[in-house]
Each structure stands twice: as C-alpha cells, then as structure tokens.
Amino acid sequence: MAGGGTGLNGAAVAVAALEAWNSCGPEGYVLNTGKLKEALPAIAEKIPCRARQAPELGRLFVEEDGKAPVFVQMLRPQEDQVHFLYFWKAFGEAARIAGALAIEHDSLSVELEMLRDRVLRLMEEALAAASKGAKGELPLAALFEEAHRAASMSAYPLFWSQAVASLASGPEPNGSVSLEEMTYLLLSWLQDSALWEHREEPRQDSAPSTSQASSREAREVAVQREPNAPKGLPVFLHVYDVSQEEGIQKLNRVLAHKHFPLKFGGVFHAGVEVNSLEWCFGYSASETHPGVACVEPRGHPMHHYRQTVAMGYTTLDGEQIADIVTQLLEEYPGQDYDLLRRNCCHFADDFTRRLGVGGIPGWVMRLAKIGAGVESMIQSAPKPIRQRFGFLTGEEDSD
C-alpha cells in the first residue's frame, strides 16, 4: 500500500485510480470481476495510505463471513462487470479511509467527484424506474442542471459554466447519455479541472523572449537577485504545452480544441536546462536515433513554451554534467518512450535528481500523469461515443 506523509488532493488520488485501473487490463470502461479479484492485492498497493491506517485499509480487501471484500461491494458490480466510474469512486473512498486524502476547501477536483456521485445516483434511479430491458440513461438536461448547481456553489463557477456551454454547443445538445458516455464526459473534464486549478501556479521567468541570448540573460539576472545565492550552476525546468508532436498531440486537444473554451494548455512537455543547454526526452522509431535531445533553452521546436521553474543550483561542473548526459543517452533510447510510464517528465525528474537539485515539482508530474491516463481512457472509448462527443477532445476526425 502506497505510503503517504501529507494528505493528497483529489487530483492525485484520481491519478492513482487511473493507474490502478489501467494495470488491471480492463476492456474500455468495464472490468471483468474475475480479473478484478485477481488484481485486488495490486490495487490495494496503489491506494495511498498512512501507516497507522494500513490495517483499516487492509480489511477492505479481505473476505469476511463468506461475503465479498468491502472494496468489491463498493464497486457495485453488475453482470460480472465493474464500471470505471464506480472504481474511481471506491478508490477515493478507500483512500479517505486510509487517511491519505487531505481535507480540501475550494477544490475543483472534489467538486468533480461530487458531480460524479450525484450523476451516478441519478442514473441508478433512472435504471430502477426503467421498464425491464430498457437502459437507464440520464437526460442531458439533467446533467446541465447538475453542472449549474455545481457552479452555484463552486469556487470556480466559470469552469462549470464554460463546460456546460461547450457541451451544449455540440452537435447533439439534447437527448440522453449512457453510463459509458458519461464516463467519457467526466474524463474530459478531469484533466481540464486539474489544469484549471493550476492555471495560477507561480511562474518564474515566464514571459516569452525573442532570442536565446535574452532568455539566458533574464534568467541570470533573476538568479543574481536571489539573496545568499549558493555557488554553482543554476538548473531550470522548462515546461511546454505539447503542440506538434505526432504521438501525443491529440491529448492536447482536450483543452486546446476549437470547440472548447478552457484554453489553459494541454499535456506538458518538460526539459532541463543546465550550463546553458536544455536536455529533453522524446519518442524515436529508430534504434540508432537517441531519445535524448539538446535544444535551445525555452526553444523546443515542437512545443509551445509555457513557463520556467528555477530548480536551484548544482555543485557539479561541466565535465560531471557531461558524464551524466552520456549516461542518460544510453539509458533513455527513443524506442523506450512510453506516454504512461516513461516520458519526458520522468526523464526530467531523473536528470534533476542526478544534478542534486531534487525532483521536479509534483504538480508537473501529476498533470502529466492525469493527461496520460485520460488519453488512454479516451482512446479506449467505443467509436460511437467518440463520434458523438469527440468534439470535446479532438477525436471527431478519428477513425
């Protein structure tokens, strides 16, 4: 069971839930209960947990008196299948029991969870009221009403009003939605909410510059202004919005698509600058082409620059840094790139730790993980769902 010091927020738990779900080998948005039971120990290991709450969490995964484990009961399986939305909900409830969730106020991720739970309850009521053989679907009008209710009590009312406006502007603003379609919609809002919460993230040296020289000069001036600055070379993490990279540009459309007004960036690409050179990691189909590349600081040709985070100072000299880069070139071949498990953020985190300045900020890694997890789920949606709601995620031209 994953250890936890300070409490995690809802977005971090959603990341863990996505990772746990994808590791179970689901078929789209559903998972066979047989596979689920086999995966229970692995799922329990992924739930964040404080040490003193470990026994309580463990009891959720143990059969008692011939009954299924409490965690399985929380999933409310139907016809030997578990649906992702119930998995996400149960995973979060287990994390709360384990004491890993922080008490949050004015959290958009919590508001999204509350909307999810209300929608699930409404869909259960619709299913119970439906005639035998009929599908329990939720009218879009009811979803709009719930979103407007969320906006009226939200610290982020504009998020909800724009989310509803985006959905209402689509080709089918009326009708109803199934549980699978609702999952697609909530997933598209999950990453949006995480990015929205971080749109005010403090930025250093964030103004665009016209040249590499002026960029470096501005950063050096900023470093010199720091009182009692230690000796050594400054290290910077440059964060980009993915804009042109073929393998993952669709995910950026979750926020950047023309029909969606929440344009605060998409999936993040990250590079590390040290000794006036920026290093990053990306996919390469060729065995002979390295995955690690060197670009002008803040000037990656395939991405749109977003912001810079000052990581601190490395005590290593140029020769020692070159040795680390040589090691990274060997350890990060382009064919090893994986959107979920080995991407540019993992590389940047590894590099900064080897430079002795610690790992990259948690919010960068968290948003990258949310984006990767959402992309995996969006791509697994049935074709009819992507055809109907693909305008929200940039998928309407796919297939």
Automatic annotation (TrEMBL):
UniProt keyword Signal, yes or no: no
Species: Symbiodinium natans
The name this protein goes by in its record: PPPDE domain-containing protein
PROSITE patterns assigned: PPPDE
A GO molecular-function descriptor: deubiquitinase activity
Domain PPPDE per the UniProt entry, residue ranges: 233-379
Pfam families membership: Peptidase_C97
Biased composition (Polar residues): 206-215
Family of the protein in this entry: Belongs to the DeSI family.
SMART domains documented for this protein: DUF862 (SM01179)
Region listing for Disordered, in residue ranges: 198-225
Gene3D superfamilies associated with the record: PPPDE domains
Alphabetic keyword roster: Hydrolase, Protease
GO biological process, one term: proteolysis
